[in-house]
Amino acid sequence: MTWSGFVPTPENRSAWLAVRQLAAGLRSAKPRPTVPSLFLHGPTGTGKTHLVNALTNDLRQHAPNRVALLFSAGELSRVARQKPETWTLAADADLLAVEDLQHLTGSAAQTLAFVFDQRLSEQRPMVFTANVGPRQLKSVPTRLVSRLAGGLVIGLAPLGPESRNLILRREAKLRRLAVDDDVLAWLAKELTGSGRYLRGVIARLVGISRNRKGTLRLEDVQRQLGEEIQASRPTVERIAQRVGQHFHVGVRQLQSRRRTRHILLPRQIGMYLARQLTSLSLSEIGDWFGGRDHTTVLSACRRVESSLRTNPELASAVESLQAEFR
Known about the structure:
- This protein is of the alpha/beta class.
- The chain has helices at about 15-25, 50-60, 75-80, 85-90, 105-120, 140-150, 160-175, 180-190, 195-210, 220-230, 235-245, 250-255, 260-275, 280-290, 295-310, 310-325, and strands at about 35-40, 70, 95-100, 125-130, 150-155.
- The protein has a 5-stranded parallel beta sheet with strand order 2-3-4-1-5, with helices on both faces.
- The radius of gyration is 22 Å and the shape is flat.
């Protein structure tokens, strides 16, 4: 993965700039880290892995004397257990990058906190990624959470319609695909997913265009992709599944009569998002969430709206979940 394959958009530009600046500092004759640690967070498909891989590939190409180590959290835990000397390498490398930090557990998380402090004292840069912000990491010790939150923390959001349109146009141009503008506008509005998924859609359109002459028309694309896009629209089931994954709660628990806080809040958020993202009535939403009446759903939505105004962490989580279905 390279810089040229990444399209900066409003949803990811801050992260892109921070990583590019970090690369420039590491390539210099005397490495000068722009920030002690950089923490990128966001849902799957927002570009975190692309940026981290572009950074390490950039160093291998332009600064081969720099040592860059890249691990997934699971890989780091496994390798460090089998080869304890890995921690020494991690402490001494010019760049340490660890992805999917939400999967870091046990002694590995404790040891990483010590390595973090050592690298921090020596001004050796670090990059971390996760699907949530530092303070939402459940399996990471408080000490490490505090260190991570003290660095530069940047959230990446799923692509919005304008950004999807930008990527689709860019890919269509690169592949010399003859397609009407209204086709790309329709796809940008109807599709959700990562840049990788959008590039895959354009590749499919290239295949479709080979079987016909002239420019691809909207009716051609709707005939080929309409059913698939219709199936991907937000539904209360998909919303509940995604909310449950985010808050580590089962869908059946969201539909149950239990009212413990670790279930109640995700259930209320599921109702709120279902109201925002679907055309279901309050009664229909309540029916799905365990047969609750419309006043319960309305109360849940109002509680979430109130919390969003006073709880930035919750607002960030809800915004991220909502953006996945845009």
